[in-house]
């Protein structure tokens, strides 16, 4: 008995020591590799969150190496644990729209008129995120706007490559738009909304539905720090914020490759810009160019990047990078000018900032009404508080007030 007790104590001591070393390693990695500018909202809290993220990824990698589960599965599991119960102001149901899982949020209070309907697509780089990770945000949106919110649990990469996520979001949106009366929603007041990769999906769905004669026109699209192109990872914001949590430049390119190909074999080519032939880059330069970024966003140490040509084999692997359903910024003008009123939120300390700025310009150039709000002290991911009150940031409230 004494021997067993001694072994247990030694095991627990080793576990605690290992955990401490893990956290210290994560802290060291964070300090060595991240860059949190002084202008970021609540920088210490951001650093703590980043350490938590790194620690979780390291634990997942350890579990993968010893054959228990994959790193991706572990991270998804830790993200998707249910932490919230019933809401006194909302009726919340998990449903299926055709083959797509969704979560429906309906205000309990009766309404004399039909409500707005919001299709919400979560962020997470097409690899992470779920109905659970954005549950608190969706509850907030439903309560504050007194709208019916549908959160879409689309398929994730790398198991389900492009265009699986887009197809699921489109299918769920079409189902909802054809059955709005069942949910007490005005068919002329349907909005698509998403953050990060979800903003990409919202923009792609909105473009697909633009001008469809058999459906009501979307009322609006709400794009929260969206990723909208994969031609140029050397725009000013990608360099200025390359090491700012919670989305590093290298990670942004990694997620795109996971979504497109289910692997990251051409990561270096994406980062140095040699994944697309020069003639194609020049063709899209009218839309994707630092020249279209206002000068005030280039003052933080930006240096123009030299265009590199593309090897034939790499071109073959990433030829779909120019498809608007993957990169909505590349849609033709005839499509863009039919888009609904748009709200775009960008953050100063976000690699995806310039994607939003470029899309804002494209929309305005084509006569689309745009409301733009820029969080000067914001970073990527700030709007979604990860279902935790203590992880909220003060500037998040300002952003949400503008969205709602």
From TrEMBL:
Residues 118-263, 323-383 form the Alpha/beta hydrolase fold-3 domain. GO terms for cellular component: membrane. The keyword Ribonucleoprotein does not apply. The active site is at residues 196, 350, 380. GO terms for molecular function: carboxylic ester hydrolase activity. Keywords: Hydrolase. The keyword Hydrolase applies. Transmembrane segments: none annotated. Belongs to the 'GDXG' lipolytic enzyme family. This is ADCL4 protein. It comes from Centropus bengalensis (lesser coucal).
